[in-house]
Each structure stands twice: as C-alpha cells, then as structure tokens.
Design brief:
binds ligand TNX, 16 helices, Chitobiase, domain 2, six-stranded mixed sheet, TIM Barrel, alpha/beta, 16 strands, 2 domains, eight-stranded parallel beta barrel
Length: 511
C-alpha cells in the first residue's frame, strides 16, 4: 500500500498532460450532454478499477472494461483489488439511485485529473457508459510525459441516455449461415455502439438454422444447404444459448425469428405435411421470395408451431418472439389473417410479445404486438390505429443489404442505393407521418442473399450500422452529418483493430 501511494504521488508530480477537449472526442452515438474541462486523467500502469460490489452486474462490467483496456492499451488494470482506494487514479463504476439517473440506460461519466467516475442506476446503463469511456481513450499513448506509457483521457462531464429503447440490427442466418464466432463478433461491434437488440432471422426458404429437439429433420434436412448450394448449417440449442448469454453479457437482447407462413420452404421440405402451396417441395438454393406457405388450415401445423415456439421461447430470456409474416404471396388473405391470429395466441401462451413484419397488422392483432415497418405506409398507419408499437426498418433507409452505390460490392438495390450519408440523413422521428409515440426504436436488417461470409457482412454493415446507432440513441439536435462524418472517419483505428472489413466509403475522409 505504501509503495502504491508513493507511486501515485510521484505520478501526480511528474505528469504534464496536454490540454484536452472532451466535446471534440469521436463519440458515436453522440451523448446527450457533454461539458469539457480541458484537463486530462492519466490512464496508465497505476490505474485501478473499482465497482459497486453489491449491485448486480457491476463487478462483471468492471472486468469487461479491464479486458477491453488490455486489448486497446496492453495495460493490466486490476478490478476491485483489496487496497481501499483514495479515489485518485481510479476508475469507479458505481450504482447510484440518483433521480437524475432514472431514465432507462442512463449514465453519467465524470472525468477529473484524479478519477473517472461512472454512475448509473442499472448495470445496463453502466455498460453503455463503459462504451463511451472506451471511445474517449486515445488509440495511441503519450510516450514522453513519463517513463511509462500514458493514455490521457479528456476531463469533463457526460450526461447521457438514449432516445429509443429499441436499437437493433438483424442478421439473416438463413439465406447464408454464419457461425457462432461470426455472430459474436457482430455482437461485439454492436455493443460498442450501444445497440441493445440483435434479431436473428433463423428460418427461411433456403434454410432452417435452429435445432428443434421435437422435430429433428428441420435442421437435418432443412439446414443442409443455403443460397448457392453451399453446405448450410444450424445452431444447436446449446450454441444458440451460448449466443444468448454472450449477448446478455453485453446487455443485448436476442430476438429469434421463425418466419411464417411464407418463407417456409425449408420447413416444408423437412416435414411435407406443413406445405400449403400444393406443389412438391425440394431444397431451395435460389433467391426468389413469396412462393412458399404453410397449410394454415391444418391443426397439425399449429401443433408443430406450438412445439417450435415452446422450445425456442424456453431458451430465449428476452421478451420477444418474431413470427415473420412477410411476403406470404401464395397464402390466401383470409388464411393469412387466420394464421397470424392463431400464432399470436401461441406466442402469448409462451409468455412472449409477438413481433412481425408490417403485414401482420392486416390481422386482428393485439395492441401489445409489435409491427416492424419495412415498406408499407398503409400497414404502418394501420398499426398506429391499433395502438401498436412500431420498429422502424424502412428498406429505403435502413436496409443493410442495399448496395451503397452501383459500383459497390454485394447487396441488392430493389429499395434503393443507400450510400453512407443517405443512411444517416433521415429523421426516424418524422418518417412517413408515423407518430413518435408509436416508435419503439430502429432496426437495421441485414439480409444475406448476397453475402456468404463475415467479411462480406461487415462490408455491408459498416460503416452504415454505426450511423443507425446514432439515429436511435442521440437526440435530433445532436445529430449532424458534418460532425458525424468526422467522428466516423476516426472510427477507422478501432475498426482496423477489430479486423472489420468495412466499406471505405469515398464520402468519408478515413483516418
Ligand atoms: C424482402 S423485407 C424481404 C426479405 C429479403 C429482402 C431482401 C422483408 C420483410 N422481406 O425476404 O431478404 O427483401 O432485401
């Protein structure tokens, strides 16, 4: 202890850190309020992390931060070591019941030359605040202010909480399958930008990707291939649980989607009694949509769906179950309505809140169910009329599988070309007249017809997904393309360090 405090004294005398400006840091999403004070906190080999010890999750968040600091700086920063700190040279992550912190996911970050104090009511808020802290630590150290390396953290105060409670992305693991490792890497990147939802599109015509123990052929047969005829794959329930837990450690909720009654060719090949389009079913490796449907008038189909929803719900701690419901072009309208209403009951029976693509609002769905708006303004209006919440995923603005421009690799362009600026420059709060009260949040879906490995996923998702994080977290007043574009350029060192194969948009002056 004596040695440590002596070292701390020495450090204080010696260091002469350059002036800083917290407000000019490259934070994305932009926090609600930033007040800069021009000094710096020296992150170095003498820094220690302390956390509230009796508040759930805080110690683990301290460990998470230490691991990320090790990755960025190489420093081995202890967490909750025995010596009682004198609050100098420490990062403290504390649970606080302060009224100022009562908004969900709210946090406050105070950086002074002596300490970094991160306060939040909840572990979730603390976790979001840790991402801000990660972002304001410089990529490179100062090597001349001391005999050891120092990373100066700009001082000041940040007061923050998100605009939208739902900030998501979707990964289509059905058209092409992606491994647990790939999904975890995507989760890590989403977490850094304060996303809190990952929607997994687990089934489609080309593949069934989640093990259902009571219906093993779904994965044996339905999971055996993918677009282009490659080998496909699926998550065992254990692997899915691994993903769910990994996401939960990053305060990200996994939303499973089983797309039905259309987009069900893979299920029907596995169990032909499910099929309702009157044709012989075969494995499908193409990219057409809208040709498949379940037989919506057979009780046995609902018994099957009951098993599927039950098994998946049992390993999904999050509150949502996504039933798809899009593009059921060969399901009769009355059959579609009957189907959605019946499946909604099953979803509720297993304690989940139903989400569906915007077409589901044509059925008599509960106001608690959620519509994911992707194309139909008419459906969005209907959802509003029913008092439903809406997830904003307008294809023209938020689809990560749209090409950036006619020359960029991968992707489709049926909705639009979406360059990096266009993806950012729109106001979800004022889109197609949808009242902001109905908007649960934003989700950027990545359909995978044209991408078959994680590098290609990253090319489409980054940098656009970074922009959606700001659209869903930051206030409209804090969003500005000119400012964003500079902050985005400065994400390059992070993206490179994470080995992200992002699209080097020519609109950005990459650092
Ligand atoms: C439409 S958007 C689909 C998907 C395709 C996507 C390709 C929606 C609910 N359905 O089946 O993959 O377009 O962009």
């Amino acid at each position: 202890v004596a040695f440590l405090s002596c070292e701390a004294e020495k450090k204080k005398r010696v260091l002469n850190l350059p002036k800083s400006n917290l407000a000019m840091e490259n934070m994305i999403p932009m926090p609600k309020k930033v007040v800069a004070t021009e000094n710096a906190f020296a992150l170095d080999q003498f820094t220690a992390i302390y956390t509230s010890e009796n508040a759930d999750g805080f110690q683990e968040i301290g460990q998470f931060l230490a691991k990320k600091l090790k990755g960025k700086t190489g420093l081995d920063i202890p967490v909750n070591v025995d010596e009682v700190p004198n609050m100098e040279g420490v990062i403290y992550i504390g649970q606080s019941d302060s009224l100022e912190l009562k908004a969900p996911e709210a946090y406050q970050l105070y950086v002074t030359p002596d300490s970094v104090i991160l306060n939040s009511n909840t572990a979730e808020g603390a976790f979001r605040g840790v991402q801000t802290l990660r972002q304001i630590i410089p990529e490179t150290s100062l090597d001349t202010v001391a005999e050891y390396k120092v990373w100066p953290i700009p001082t000041g105060k940040i007061i923050d909480n998100p605009v939208f409670e739902y900030r998501g992305s979707m990964l289509d693991v059905a058209r092409h399958f992606f491994s647990v490792e790939d999904v975890k890497k995507y989760i890590d990147l989403l977490a850094y930008y304060k996303y809190n939802v990952l929607h997994l599109h687990l089934t489609d015509d080309q593949g069934w990707r989640i093990e259902i123990k009571s219906w093993p052929k779904l994965t044996e047969i339905g999971g055996s291939t993918e677009v282009g005829g490659e080998s496909g794959g699926f998550f065992t329930q254990e692997e899915y649980t691994d993903i769910v837990n990994y996401a939960a450690e990053r305060y990200i909720t996994i939303i499973p989607e089983v797309d039905m009654p259309g987009h069900t060719n893979a299920a029907s090949v596995s169990y032909p009694f499910l099929n309702g389009n009157g044709k012989k079913v075969e494995l499908y490796e193409g990219t057409q949509v809208g040709f498949s449907t379940f037989d919506t008038r057979k009780d046995s189909v609902y018994a099957f769906i009951d098993d599927v929803v039950r098994e998946i719900s049992a390993i999904t701690p999050g509150p949502y179950f996504h039933i798809g419901g899009d593009e059921s072009h060969v399901t009769k309208k009355e059959d579609y309505i009957y189907f959605v209403e019946r499946v909604e009951k099953i979803v509720k029976k297993y304690g989940k809140r139903m989400i569906g693509w915007d077409e589901i609002v044509t059925a008599d769905v509960d106001s608690e169910s959620i519509a994911q708006f992707w194309a139909s303004k008419e459906n969005a209006d209907l959802a509003v009329k029913k008092g439903m919440k809406i997830i904003m995923s307008p294809a023209k603005k938020a689809y990560l599988d749209m090409q950036y421009d006619s020359l960029s690799k991968h992707g489709l362009h049926w909705a639009a070309y979406i360059p990096t600026d266009s993806a950012y420059i729109w106001t979800p709060e004022e889109y197609e007249g949808i009242p902001v009260e109905n908007i649960l949040g934003i989700e950027a879906p990545l359909w995978s017809e044209t991408v078959s490995n994680i590098d290609e996923v990253e090319y489409l998702a980054f940098p656009r997904a970074i922009g959606y994080s700001e659209l869903s977290w930051s206030t409209p007043e804090n969003r500005d393309w000119e400012s964003y574009k500079v902050r985005l350029a400065n994400q390059a060192p992070f993206l490179d360090r994470m080995d992200v194969k992002y699209y080097p948009s020519p609109l950005i002056d990459w650092k």
